[in-house]
Amino acid sequence: MTIADNNLKSLCNDILNSGNNTLGEKVRPKYADGTPSHTMFVNQVFERYDLSKGELPIVTLRQVAWKSGIKEILWIYQDQSNNLDLLRDKYGITWWDEWDLGDRTIGQRYGATVKRYKLMDKLLENLKNQPYGRRHIINLYQEADLEETAGLYPCAMETQWSVRDGYLDLTLIQRSSDVAVANAINKIQYVALQMMVARHVGLQAGVFCHYVNNAHIYDRHIDQIKEMIARDPQEGHESVRLVLNPDKTNFYDFTLDDFTMENYDPVKPNFQFELAI
C-alpha cells in the first residue's frame, strides 16, 4: 500500500467518522437531476511527500486517471487556455463541459489567468534568475478575473515554489477538494508539473506538499468511498514511479508521451462517481 493510500484511508475515515456536514444547509452544487449535493467534510488537511525518496502520491485503491490529469495541466500551464474545444480536440477531455458558459470556455479562469498575467513565464524566469527568492508563486484566484465572467472558482488555486540544495519543492494549496473525484488526480498532476518545471530550471523534484482547506465527500459518494477504503492492495505498490523523459529540458516541449508510470497496478474494478456541478 502506498503512502497516498494510507493518507486517503485516514482522510476518508476522518471525514466519515468525525467530520461535519452540510445537511439542512443551503448549498451551491447540484447533481445533474437538480438535487442539492450535500457533503461531509473536514478542514485544513495537509500531506507531505518527498519525491526524491520515492514517496509518489499515487493512489492504488482505485484507478487514478493520471494521464488525463497531466493533459489538463498541459492545457492550463502550457496552452494557457480556457477553451473547451481545444481541451477536447487536443487532449480528448470533456469533463469541464459541465461548466461551459455557452461560448465553449470556462470563463476568465485557470489557463486564461495564467496567460493574462504571464504567470508561467514569470515563474520559470524567476526560478532561473533568483532561485532562492521567496516569491515564486502562481495564484489563479485573481479577483478581477473572477468578477469579469461567470464560472467555477479555481479549486487548486495556488502553487508556491522553493529551491534548496539542488531540489525544487512545491506546495499546492486548494480551497476545496472533492475527495472521491479529484483529490488523487490533483496530487499526481501537480507532481507532474513540478517535475517539468524542475527539469526546465536544472533542478530535481523534491518535496511535494498538499494543503486542502475543505476536503469533502458528497452524500452520493459515501457508499463507494466506504467500499474503496475497505480494499487491501497487493504488496509491491511502494515501487510505483512516475518517470519523465530525460532527453527534454524545455517546459513547453513536454507532452504526455514524455511521462511513464512504472509498476502501477491499481485495484479493480474502478468506481464511477456522480458529478456535483
Automatic annotation (TrEMBL):
Reaction it catalyzes: dUMP + (6R)-5,10-methylene-5,6,7,8-tetrahydrofolate = 7,8-dihydrofolate + dTMP
Thymidylate synthase/dCMP hydroxymethylase domain sequence ranges: 9-276
Residues the entry annotates as binding dUMP: 134-135, 175-178, 186, 216-218
Keyword Repeat annotated: no
Active-site residues (renumbered): 155 (nucleophile), 155
GO cellular component terms listed in the entry, alphabetical order: cytosol
Subcellular location: Cytoplasm
GO molecular function annotations of the record: thymidylate synthase activity
Keyword Cytoplasm set for record: yes
Domain of life, per lineage: Bacteria
Keywords: Cytoplasm, Methyltransferase, Nucleotide biosynthesis, Transferase
Family, similarity comment: Belongs to the thymidylate synthase family. Bacterial-type ThyA subfamily.
Oligomeric form and interacting partners: Homodimer.
The protein, known as: Thymidylate synthase
Annotated source species: Peptostreptococcus stomatis DSM 17678
